[in-house]
Each structure stands twice: as structure tokens, then as C-alpha cells.
Amino acid sequence: MRLSSRQRKILSLLHGGTYLEVKDLAQLLHVDASTIRRDLQGLTAEGLIERRHGGAILRHTTDSHFSHALSNETEHLAVAKAAYRMLKDGDSLTLASGPISTLLALSLLDMQDLTIITNDLNSAMTLSANPTFKVHIPGGELRESPAHTVSGTKAEAFLIEQRTAWSFIEVEGIHPYSGFTISATWQTGITRMLLQAGKRKCVMADSMAFGRRCVGFVSETNSANLIMTDELLNDYELPAFGGRVMRIARDPRDLLA
């Protein structure tokens, strides 16, 4: 079966274990729910996805990973939409990999004349669907797991020379003493350089990342202008970050069945 461009976008959205319901896919791709259901039927027949709970997830994703993705998808979407609203046509940005970043990439498609530097090949393919975008991928070592991303010294050297209006990275750990951290140690350098390239530096994470420490150090928390997370973050976590945390409420429309 030859996949349509929309089906490829659906696979990109589901990349990394993200669970999405039919209504969310329809909203992100600007089509009706029946169109999405037909696309999902074809992807299911090809063995690429599994249909669950009125939505879909990539195949070969563990049940525990599915449960985590299902419980956090609405929060991830809220953060991605907030990042989208900060941008305007003609902006330039760097974009790292992760489930929130994947949702942000899809949200950007209705904008015009963006210049994007990303090390995530799935996001790059998604963004290339807009002919007004200039999408740049740094050269380097391609890793298949946990995502199709580019890293290494060559990629980092490329980013040293780049300057964008915005940078958006995603992390798994945020701690006042241990800083921003991720579990994929080989991605620490490229993630750090993606953050540093932006004039306005934004870190995205779900609220579960606060207080967590991973093995891969990216940067101190004061290196970011803004830390974007969901509304579930407790008040007692806020003082350590000097007013740079933005808690984003979920859109009530995303909670409707």
C-alpha cells in the first residue's frame, strides 16, 4: 500500500508511543473524523498501528507505555498549542524531538514562511509538507531509537553557527540543582545546542518531569527563558525556577468525547 501524505503525518504524530484519539487527529490535520477513520483503517490493515479506545497508537508499543501516553496526551497537546500561539508567520526556530515537539510540528503546518532547524527526521518530514517552510536538518549520526534523530559532533558544530528567533526543546527531567536532563545521553549535546541557538529559549515538559533527574545533563535551568508545562504541576515546585514556569491549562474542547 502506498501511504498518503496525511497517513504519513498520522504516523509521525504517533511516533514515540503517543496515543491520539480520532477527534484530536481530525483537529490537527484539519479534516473530519470520518476521513481520519478511513486513514486509520488503512494503516491498521498494513500492520502499522493499533486501534485502541477510539484512537490509535503505533504497533509494538508496550501497554505501560500506552497507558502513560494516554494519560498525558491531552497535557502534551495543550503545551504544543501554547507554543504554537507564541509564533508568527516568518519566524525562525529550532525544534528538538519528543511527543510534545511532534504535536507542535503538526500544529505549525497552517503557518507561513517559517524557517525550522530540527534533528528529528519525522518532524522534518511533517514540516516539509508546507511548501513555504525552509526545513534544515544538521548532518551527523542518525539514530533509530528512541526516535529517528541526528546527533553527534558534526551536528553540534553546525548548530554553533545558527541563530533563530526561538528554540523549543523537550526534556524528561527538571530539577533546581540537576538542571534539564534526558535519558538518551547521546542526545545531550545536540539538545543543548538546539536550545542555545534560539534568542528566546523554551523548554517543554509534562509536569511529571519536575523533581526528576535523568542521566543525560542538557543545561542549567536558568539557561531557559521559559519552561512550559501542564496545569498539573504543584504550586510548591514553582519558587525554585524564578517565575520562568508557564503552567498551561487544557483546552476544554480537547476533553470532549
From TrEMBL:
The keyword Nucleotide-binding appears for this protein: no
Superkingdom classification of source: Bacteria
Pfam families reported in the protein's UniProt record: DeoRC, HTH_DeoR
Signal peptide coordinates: none
GO molecular function: DNA-binding transcription factor activity
Residue span(s) of domain HTH deoR-type: 3-58
Gene3D superfamilies reported in the protein's UniProt record: Winged helix-like DNA-binding domain superfamily/Winged helix DNA-binding domain
SUPFAM superfamilies linked to this entry: NagB/RpiA/CoA transferase-like (SSF100950), Winged helix' DNA-binding domain (SSF46785)
HTH arsR-type domain sequence ranges: 1-81
InterPro entries, sorted: Carb_Metab_HTH_regulators, DeoR-like_C, DeoR_HTH, HTH_ArsR_DNA-bd_dom, NagB/RpiA_transferase-like, WH-like_DNA-bd_sf, WH_DNA-bd_sf
Entry keywords, A to Z: Transcription, Transcription regulation
PANTHER family for this protein: AGA OPERON TRANSCRIPTIONAL REPRESSOR-RELATED, HTH-TYPE TRANSCRIPTIONAL REGULATOR SRLR-RELATED
UniProt name for this protein: DeoR/GlpR transcriptional regulator
Annotated source species: Arcanobacterium buesumense
